[in-house]
Amino acid sequence: MAVYEAIRNLVQYGVNTGLLQESDRIYATNQILEVLGLDEYEEPQGACREISLEETLDALLDYAHETGVLKEDGVVYRDLFDTKLMNCLMPRPSEVIGHFWKLYEESPEAATNYYYKLSQDSNYIRRYRVSKDMKWKTDTKYGELDITVNLSKPEKDPKAIAAAKLAKQSGYPKCLLCKENEGYAGRVNHPARNNHRIIPITVNDSQWGFQYSPYVYYNEHCIVFNGMHTPMKIERATFVKLFPHYFLGSNADLPIVGGSILSHDHFQGGHYTFAMAKAPIEQKFEMEGFEDVEAGIVKWPMSVLRTRSKNPDRLIDLGEKVLRAWRSYTDEDAFIYAETDGEPHNTITPIARKNGDFYELDLVLRNNITTDEYPLGVYHPHAKLHHIKKENIGLIEVMGLAVLPSRLKQELADLAEAILSGGDIRSNPELEKHADWVDEFLPKYEHITSENINEILQKEVGLVFEQVLEDAGVYKCTPEGREAFARFLRSVGFR
């Protein structure tokens, strides 16, 4: 039977990747049989051909649906089921944790290499979906910005969306970042995490968890989350000491400027150098009592104070001083208000990294005030850019990586076709929102052909993201903006 071959291939995949030992083969096979509702098995003859995990799981999912074990088809239900299958290959959490810290004694990088590979081999990070993401770089006056149209997160089908609305709302796990997700089977309104493993770490003398994002927006995109389900707040963290090859940043702790999940305290990090980290300091400052710390305004569209020292504790002390000052700072001439009607507006997005012998802490000033003209936020992408990017500008975008909606893949393809054919973009309901933008950039190009249209569209999308970041900057990159930024720094004690 073809299903026996798929079972054999899945077990062999587990052995090949190191998820299983050879002595686990029979046990894993029996676990898969149980998930599929089978009570007998015959080992196929002959050697395994090259194994594709995606094809193997598809074969098993098709069998499960045909036999009624998988009652509903569609991506949500298939993801719930194939995660159960992958769990049959997984080591226990204690084994993963033990091996991680054993490798850590060799080097932090050896430990994270093992854990990142495990997170991919287990299909927790679905390599075959991530590989479909659109990615490119755009040259701007601030350096090369990273652009991604993320397709890793599957689109839910209408039936699953309807079922999720009708499903009983559960308080377990409380959110997608809670430690209770480890091994959780999931449901139609909560993704399966049977194959999820978490590394416990200590941050600020309390228990936290370390894991990777299943949607990997950049290399080794990790999440460090509080062991307790507690709201987002900015605090001291020692993660970069634990893993000096990773940067670590925190989303701001206020709505609009705070990214996607504010209900659970967490950081994000990874093994990647963003454009912001490469951007130079354009104006230096110093402070009495912190002579061992270099500081300066970074040449970046958002308002960034970079601090550098060989002693990370000094950076944290100075960062806390800046944060306290910024939270209560008002400058009406620069349209900076600490609060209106009791609602706080000022906060910071902090990002830490090790750069050679120095630790660096970038402090990105944020403000979430709204007005009648800008109801989504004054320092938020303005309405003319919403056809490309409307969502909040969180930590990842702040550093120079645009995470753009999956709809753009088809829209850009359709736009390319319409531009080449000379069609009326405004007559297409899906493309009409892009018409003013196209009218604006087309005159820049003398020759547009099928060979260069995609490159042109990608470049122009990147330039829109440059404007997005400029909109989100509380102090603009103008002489007036830089003077207002310096005015704040002088109020803190910089000179």
Describe the structure concisely.
The chain has 495 residues and is an alpha+beta fold. It has helices spanning 2-17, 25-36, 53-66, 75-87, 93-106, 108-121, 127-130, 158-166, 239-242, 275-278, 312-327, 395-398, 407-421, 435-441, 453-472, 479-492, and strands at residues 134-140, 143-149, 199-203, 206-212, 222-226, 247-249, 266-270, 281-285, 294-298, 304-309, 339-340, 343-344, 346-355, 358-367, 401-404. It contains 16 helices and 15 strands.
Spatial strand arrangement across the major sheet: 3-4-5-7-6-13-14-10-9-8
Class by SSE composition:
alpha+beta
3D shape: globular
Count helical runs.
16
Helix content: 25-40%
Mean pLDDT across the residues is 93
Sheet-strand content, in percent, reads 15-25%
Biggest sheet layout: 10 strands, antiparallel
Computed CA radius of gyration, to the nearest angstrom = 25 Å
Low-confidence stretches: none
The number of E-state strands comes to 15
Q: What would your notes on this structure say?
A:
It is a single chain. Strands 3-4-5-7-6-13-14-10-9-8 form a 10-stranded antiparallel beta sheet. The chain has a 3-stranded mixed beta sheet with strand order 1-2-15. It has a two-stranded antiparallel sheet with strand order 11-12. The chain has 16 helices and 15 strands. Helix 5 runs antiparallel to helix 6. Helices cover 36% and strands 17% of the residues.
